[in-house]
């Protein structure tokens, strides 16, 4: 599945950076870019890209007003150097809010939300893989192979079935949680998300994956057991 996107920013260097990010992201396709929001609005109302990377502070027409004019035609990811617009952006149902300077890892995380949103909107086949930045490369991770994800401050470790070494990526556990199908993955602890289909053994309030033990928080235990019981009979 491809997500078409449009870049709007009054800074040419930012446009150039984001165009480079789009080219290196396999599922994105650049539909256009502009430093003139009025001209860009004409293009977008005519061609309707899936996603817009949209600056907020621009002359003639700011990004917040621009977003209101576009409505629900396209998903919006705001790009700005000013934190004070965050609340208003989420009131407008923005998909994400990226702070400049924008690292590629944040860009990719936001773009994958657009991919998931498009998949859900079109009732297409569910997303089967994600691309994460690891060791300065983009690595494809098959969702069905994920056993669990471990959050470690500013990065995550993605543990895969049959693989001795996890895939490490600079992103938050919350960001990873938003990319994964909610009916298959669940947070069981503030530092762990598990693939429910991969859970085979639970011992003393811990999930066992080989030699690894994943703790289950008391506050999340009820929801976890409920999720397990959807596809299995739990004998107590």
TrEMBL record:
SMART domains: LytTR, REC. The keyword Metal-binding does not apply. Residues 130-204 form the HTH LytTR-type domain. GO terms for molecular function: DNA binding; phosphorelay response regulator activity. PANTHER family: STAGE 0 SPORULATION PROTEIN A HOMOLOG, TRANSCRIPTIONAL REGULATOR-RELATED. Keywords: Phosphoprotein. This is Response regulator transcription factor. InterPro entries: CheY-like_superfamily, LytR-like, LytTR_DNA-bd_dom, Sig_transdc_resp-reg_receiver. The modification 4-aspartylphosphate is found at residue 55. It comes from the Bacteria. It comes from Candidatus Caccoplasma merdipullorum. Pfam families: LytTR, Response_reg. Residues 4-115 form the Response regulatory domain.
